[in-house]
Design a protein that fits this description.
Strand content: 25-35%
Number of strands: 11
Largest sheet: 6 strands, antiparallel
Shape: rod-shaped
Order of helices and strands: EEEEEEEEEEEH
Length: 226
Amino acid sequence: MNTGDLLTIEPQELQFPFELRKQISCSLELLNKSDNYVAFKVKTTNPKKYYVRPNTGVVSPRSTWDVTVTMQAQKEAPPDMQCKDKFLLQSVVASPGATAKDVNAEMFNKEAGHHVEECKLRVVYVAPTRTPSSVREGPEEGSSPRASVSDNGSLSASERAVVSIPYVERHKPQDNTIEEMALISKLTAERNSAIQQNNRLQQELIFCYWNEHVVWKKLQKFNLSK
């Protein structure tokens, strides 16, 4: 939990239960313990990969606000399940009674003399669990999520520094992929074909044995008749 003069942010990491070809969401809770209205804005180093709802807003005095961050469906997993993406949450005192419509870029301009608090959040991939949790999964790949707006969608060059994320347990998908299902179907068909061929060979052997028995009987009968 990060405690600043304006907002308390929880958690300090954006944890996504990573699964291929699925949109995954996680939540941030913003707590305003002050008597001021506090405006906030969320930025990310990778705006094409994530969208934020809402990415700007105003937290009323002594109240909380939930922000949902959604990672779009990924077609491949990163090396060692490590992620270099980062988020930046900025907060500033707003005018009494301000709403989300009153939030603008100038409010977060430090050069204009505004006191802006900043909190950097890292992204961590974790193995998905099959039990109910507070993490919500979004629709599968193919939907059209609403893009977030975050001041040209990027941070400054200094904020793009690479963050080393601790190794997270590699996730081995439990659900069969399309390729695995195709392989299983192929092997099943080959097994069934082998069983059928084995049954056919057994029937042919029985038929041959019966024919040989009939011929032997006829020969024996012929010899006795002599």
